[in-house]
## 1
Amino acid sequence: MDPNDKRPVVLVTGAARGIGATTVACLAERGARVFAVDIGSDVVEYAAEFDGQVIGHVADLADPSQVAEMISICVKTMGGLNSLYNDAGIFGDTAPVEDYPLATFEHVWAVNVRGVFVAIQHAVPHLRAAGGGAILNTASTGALVGSAGITAYVASKHAVHGLTRCLALELAPDNISVNVLCPGATDTAMISTDFDGHGRKGTARVSEEIDSITPTGRMARTEELGAVAAWALLEAPVYMTGKPIVVDGAQTTRP
Ligand SMILES: NC(=O)c1ccc[n+]([C@@H]2O[C@H](COP(=O)([O-])OP(=O)(O)OC[C@H]3O[C@@H](n4cnc5c(N)ncnc54)[C@H](O)[C@@H]3O)[C@@H](O)[C@H]2O)c1
């Protein structure tokens, strides 16, 4: 990739599938160059579909040294960094608090919270060098309300919301916005395979039940999240900072 290319550079984590993969396509459509990161090596094949506009990179966000390396390789390959989208996240287990496996709790936090924090630590000097930029984290409606049994995930998403608020204040003088996308239930593998729905993991019934309790009558499509994420990363005014961007079909609006 030509490092003198002036099109904006966006780093997206969790880019191999789901909301992250769709956001990569939305960003490319809007003319950005994308550094697409995932733990799954299929991210490299996915990136190759974009005729050189997207570079794929494999990294495990639970490992701080791989996160640091991801930022440095991105900047070397692309010639800089303008926006960072921390999308990757894992669900963990659903279990009563006394049975919740500590190792799962720690892994969920390593990916969902520490991975985001370390990525921002290493990205900020490059965003400053670019004269400012946008950081978008991904939480969930689970950052706004509680949910029984999904303790590690929901607490981690509250932490991402808190981290967003602190860093928006810290980085506002540098012309860097920090916001947090809060999707409601979205039609991805996270819902179809990971979400437990109280013991009915991976069944069609879980998806049907989510559709039936959502005011729109259906889950979000990844395109709906990708369009909002791409706007927040490329076009939103820097004055919009420190806020949750809730895209949930009015799930959290009713009493
Ligand atoms: N789908 C939903 O209903 C929903 C709702 C609210 C919030 N979210 C959040 O949106 C984000 C994307 O969710 P999704 O539904 O697209 O998930 P998904 O499971 O479809 O995709 C997540 C991607 O992240 C990657 N990933 C997981 N662990 C990683 C690691 N350690 N290092 C690097 N990459 C890793 C996976 O390989 C995968 O490609 C997550 O943060 C999730 O918590 C999703």
Note: The CA atoms of residues 84 and 120 lie 8 Å apart.
## 2
Amino acid sequence: MTHQFNDNVKISRLTSDCASDAFSLACEVFVEASVLHAAINISVEEYKHYLAGSFEAMWRQGLSLVVTDTQTNEIIGCLIACDYLTQDQSLITVPDKLKPVNALLNRLDEMYRNNRQLETGQCMLVDMAVVIENARGQGIYRKLRESAHQIGRKAGYTLVVGELSSTATQQLCVSRFNHKVCAEIEYSSYKYKEHYPFSTIETPRSIILAEGNL
Ligand SMILES: CC(C)(COP(=O)(O)OP(=O)(O)OC[C@H]1O[C@@H](n2cnc3c(N)ncnc32)[C@H](O)[C@@H]1OP(=O)(O)O)[C@@H](O)C(=O)NCCC(=O)NCCS
């Protein structure tokens, strides 16, 4: 599957040819620009070491995408998706800095699954999405999402879920796609071991787990 949506950018399946570049890009952008990861101040190397195994397990499910600049052949974005029930099966020790992030995501998951019984093959999780800074605001994430939803639908998934930590992802999924907010946690009041690790995040106000039909 390759989808060229203007002269300069194409979206294609993440395969072994580009997995290593996509992995580096995803880690670099997340550490710098995901509000959660910026708040905990983790290094790219530490994050890569932690994520390598689960990143590979996710893209090998065949639901993930890369965006390439067709002029330079450079990867400028990616979206990593997997079956909701197979996320986070890594056996690697979680670095201390990442523990508050994982605890927050686990809490969102708990809130969601209190009201939802899921089966394998039913719900696709969009786990990560990144676009490089100077390509943002041009609708690339929107195109990535639309392509991923199409792939998920064809693979038999009927639901898509995102743990949306940023304003752009919340804007697109909740306001544009009308995905349902199934769980929400305010950053400023989230407490982990007597600390408020995300109190420095001003926008958005909260992290949201949103579910859409495919
Ligand atoms: C989140 C990210 C992938 C968005 O990529 P993008 O290609 O710039 O997004 P798009 O241009 O498709 O914009 C999607 C929507 O968000 C809106 N948006 C984009 N940036 C925004 C911002 N900073 N504030 C408010 N809305 C924003 C756009 O207007 C668009 O909404 P619209 O369809 O109503 O106009 C990109 O900003 C990124 O890589 N951020 C760092 C990593 C990260 O936080 N990933 C998400 C973790 S959940």
Note: The first strand starts at residue 2 and ends at 6.
